[in-house]
């Protein structure tokens, strides 16, 4: 009997905690509007894509080779890290990834490639 009373009491305490926790005032601030964030992300990604397609000196390319955008990671101070996977004739190049750091205004801050070797397949 004592065990059953303890179980019922625990369940009631849990339910009361849930009700109070969900009906109380929230101290959380409203998230920023996503329109401005999405526009800045799109601007950074477009600038990074232009830098990669435009043949930046930091990225070695040969005919049949391309970089495919893999991820976009929002960072601090309105910076975005955009990563690319390198392919040659449709095949993935292991160790050939690249990353571009761009801000929300479209300025490229840095470009880094993992491998500068030119690829040739006989």
Total helical elements: 2
CATH class of the domain at 35-116 equals: Alpha Beta
Percentage of residues assigned to helices: 25-40%
**Level-2 CATH architecture of the domain at 35-116:** Roll
CATH topology (level 3) name of the domain at 35-116: Nuclear Transport Factor 2, Chain: A
Outline: elongated
Mean pLDDT score: 76
End-to-end CA span: 82 Å
Order of helices and strands: HHEEEEE
- Strand-residue fraction? 25-35%
Number of DSSP strands?
5
- Contiguous low-pLDDT stretches (5 residues minimum) are 11-16, 18-31
Which structural category do the helix and sheet elements fall into?
alpha+beta
Radius of gyration: 25 Å
Largest sheet: 5 strands, antiparallel
Q: What oligomeric arrangement do these chains adopt? A: single chain
Task: Report on this structure.
There is one protein chain. This protein has 122 residues and is an alpha+beta fold. It has a domain of 82 residues: Nuclear Transport Factor 2, Chain: A, CATH 3.10.450. 34% of the residues lie in helices and 28% in strands. Strands 1, 2, 3, 4 and 5 form a five-stranded antiparallel sheet that branches. A hairpin with a 2-residue loop joins strand 2 and strand 3. The chain is built from two helices and five strands. About 16% of the residues have low confidence.
List the helices and strands and how they pair.
Blueprint lengths: L1 H22 L10 H20 L11 E10 L4 E10 L2 E2 L5 E6 L4 E6 L9
Antiparallel strand pairs: 1-2, 2-3, 2-4, 4-5
């Amino acid at each position: 009997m004592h065990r059953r009373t303890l179980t019922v009491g625990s369940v009631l305490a849990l339910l009361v905690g849930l009700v109070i926790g969900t009906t109380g005032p929230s101290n959380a601030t409203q998230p920023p509007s996503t329109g401005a964030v999405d526009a800045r992300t799109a601007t950074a990604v477009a600038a990074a894509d232009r830098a990669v397609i435009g043949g930046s000196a930091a990225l070695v390319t040969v005919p049949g080779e391309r970089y495919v955008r893999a991820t976009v990671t929002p960072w601090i101070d309105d910076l975005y890290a955009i990563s690319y996977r390198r392919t040659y004739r449709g095949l993935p190049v292991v160790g050939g990834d690249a990353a571009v750091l761009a801000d929300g205004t479209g300025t490229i801050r840095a470009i880094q490639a993992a491998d500068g070797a030119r690829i040739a397949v006989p």
